[in-house]
Amino acid sequence: MKKIIYLYILESMAEWEVGYILQAISMESILKKQNREFVIKTVSTSKNPIKTIGGLTITSDCLLDEMDENNMVALLLPGAESWNSEENNQILEKALSYIDRGILVGAICGATLALADLKVLDKFKHTSNSLDYLTLFSKQYSGKELYVNSPAVVDCNLITASSAGGLLWAKHIIQYLNVFPCDIIESWYNYYSTGDPKHFTELISQSI
Asked: Is 109 marked active-site?
């Protein structure tokens, strides 16, 4: 069985924020000679299609009660304009449970605000769009002493990122999950952060 990375999809999600992690996982088929260990599956509250901010229409692979928690290794929460909707409460409850159980949870942009409202960020080093973003929009947030001014931050099994931190967020996720050896991850990150073709050559030459 493949290791499952669940990506929660919700109305008005910022689909571009998850682009780098999708690309990184897709590289398994190239770098591991088709021996893929990981799969990304979308999960949602219903089978009704959602519309992203960028205009894509996405239908989830499964519902929340269909998640295979025996084979899951991570839950990713994208930014969205609709995190304050009550229909997202169930996935947030699951996220809290996964954090307590040592399962990786990744949150970016607006999803960090949702976690701030649940006091999660009061316990972990974290980042977001800015400290002001959290203090202005979350009445429950009191974790400013743990705020780190960085595009993405790892603390235990919680990885947070700003809306501009999708690349570093993805790097931390694939490092945490050991998707690739460190040399491959560095070549991948260096290529996408600089655009220098020498790093692409390094990346492709390191097929496992």
From this structure: yes
Q: What percent of the chain lies above the pLDDT cut of 70? A: 99
Angle, in degrees to the nearest 10, between helices 182-194 and 197-204 = 150
Mean per-residue pLDDT of the chain: 97
Report the C-alpha gap between 22 and 20 in whole angstroms: 5
Which amino acid is residue 22, in one-letter code?
L
Considering the candidates 62, 109, 156, 182, report the single residue annotated as catalytic. 109
Q: Which residue has the tokens 């299609």?
A: 49
Give which of 159, 133, 154 is closest to 144, Cα–Cα. 133
* DSSP alpha helix (H) spans, 84-181: 89-101, 110-117, 131-137, 166-176
Determine the structural domain holding residue 172 and report its residue range.
Answer: 3-204
CA distance 103 to 157: 6
Flag whether pLDDT at 31 surpasses 70.
Answer: yes
Residue 11, CA atoms < 13 Å, CB-side half-sphere = 10
Q: How far apart are CA 36 and CA 107, in angstroms?
A: 24
| CATH number of the domain enclosing 114 | 3.40.50.880
Q: How many domains does the structure of the chain reveal? A: 1
Burial classification of residue 122, based on how many CB atoms lie within 10 Å of its CB (0-12 exposed, 13-18 middle, 19 or more buried): middle
pLDDT band at 155 (very low <50, low <70, confident <90, very high): very high
Is the predicted pLDDT of residue 153 greater than 70, yes or no? yes
